Amino acid sequence: MDLNKIYHEDCLDTLKRMEDDSVDVTITSPPYNLNLRIANGKYVPRGMDKSNTLATKYGTVEDHEFADNIPIDKYNEFHTKVLRELIRVSSLVFYNIQVVTGSKRSLWKMIGEFGDDLKDIIIWDKGRAEPAILEGVINRQSELILVFDKDYPIARQYRKKGRFARGTLNDIWQINRERGKGGHGAIFPQELITKILVNFSDEGDVIYDPFMGTGTTALVSKNLNRNYIGSERSEHYIKVAEDRLFQPLEIFK
Questions:
Q1: Distance in angstroms (rounded) separating the CA atoms of residues 157 and 180
Q2: How many degrees, rounded to 5, is the angle at CA 253 between CA 203 and CA 149?
Q3: Average pLDDT, rounded, for the chain
Q4: Rounded distance, CA 188 to CA 179, Å?
Q5: What is the CATH number of domain 5-244?
Q6: What pLDDT does 36 receive?
Q7: Please, are residues 55 and 49 in contact by the beta-carbon 8 Å criterion?
Q8: pLDDT at 236
Q9: Going by DSSP bridges, is the β-strand pair 118-130/172-174 parallel, antiparallel, or unpaired?
Q10: Are 31 and 64 a contacting pair, CB within 8 Å?
C-alpha cells in the first residue's frame, strides 16, 4: 500500500488490500444519509431537483450511490462492514457522524454491535445550530466522534496513543465549522483534525481516511509530518484534495 496517496475507489476495496494493524490512526466523517426522510412512518428518499436528478450536499449527481439517501438497512450494512475493517487495520479509529434521520437508527445499532471496541464518545460542538426544519425537532449543534481503540478498549486510558497530559483534554470540543471546498458543503475543520493528530499520534504515523472528500485529513497529516492514505470515489474531490495539498496550514494546538 503506497503512502501519501488518495485512492480513487470505494474504501472497502482499499481496506481489502490493507494488512492488520497497518494504520496508526483512522480519522473520517462518512456521509450522513441526509436525504433519507420519514413520511407517514416510513423512510423515503428526497432531494430531487428540477432536472429530476438527486441534489445532495455533495452537489447534483445522477449516480444514486452518491445520493446520500441509502435505505437504512443498506446504510447500516455498509457502515458495519467499514467499521469492522477499520478496527482490523487501525490502532485508533475516530468516526465522526451527525445524528440525523437517515443515520440515527443505524448509529444506535453500531454503538451496540461494536460496544466492546468503543473507547469514548467525543462531542463536537460546532458553535451554533442550524434551525430544525420541522416543529418539535431539537436543533442540532453537535456531532459525535466515536473513538474505537484496539489496544485497551475496556478502560478509559489511552495507553499507546495518548499524547496529552493528565487533566488537559476534555470530551467536548468547541470547534467552528469551515466553509465548504470544491462544492462539498460539509468538510472537516482543519482544527478538528489537528486536535486529534496532536493528541493521539506521532510524526511518521500512518493516518487513514476512508471517506477523504476534499482532503482535509491528508492536508493536516502532511503539514504535521504524518503519512496519509485516503479513499475517495469522486474524481472531482480527489482533484480538489490534491490541489489543497499545496496549501499552507495553520497549526492549532
A1: 35
A2: 60
A3: 87
A4: 9
A5: 3.40.50.150
A6: 85
A7: yes
A8: 93
A9: parallel
A10: no
Q: Are 222 and 207 in contact (CB under 8 A)?
A: no
DSSP H helical ranges for 17-103: 72-89
Q: How far is CA 113 from CA 86, 108, 109, 134, 156, in A?
A: 14, 9, 6, 31, 19
Task: Provide the β-strand partners of residue 145.
Answer: 96, 122
What amino acid is encoded at 157 in this protein?
Answer: Q
**Among 152, 145, 18, CA closest to 86:** 18
Spatial distance between the Cα atoms of 31 and 51, rounded to a whole number of angstroms: 23
Measured CA to CA, the distance from residue 221 to residue 212 in angstroms comes to: 12
Each residue's pLDDT tens digit, 72-97? 899 999 999 999 999 999 999 999 99
E-assigned strands of the chain?
5-7, 23-28, 36-39, 42-45, 54-56, 59-61, 90-97, 118-130, 140-149, 172-174, 206-209, 227-231
C-alpha cell at 168: 488537559
Helix, strand or coil, per DSSP, at residue 232: coil
Domain residue ranges in the chain: 5-244
Residue 95, SS3? strand
pLDDT at residue number 158 = 95
| Residue 55 contacts residue 47 (beta carbons within 8 Å) | yes
Q: Compute and round to an integer the Cα radius of gyration of the chain.
A: 18
What is the C-alpha separation between 184 and 80, in angstroms, rounded? Answer: 24
Across the range 215-227, mean pLDDT stands at 95
Total-model pTM: 0.88
> What gap in Å lies between CA 198 and CA 135, rounded to an integer?
41
Give percent above pLDDT 70 in the chain: 86
Length of the chain counted residue by residue: 253
Structure-block grid coordinates of residue 50: 428540477
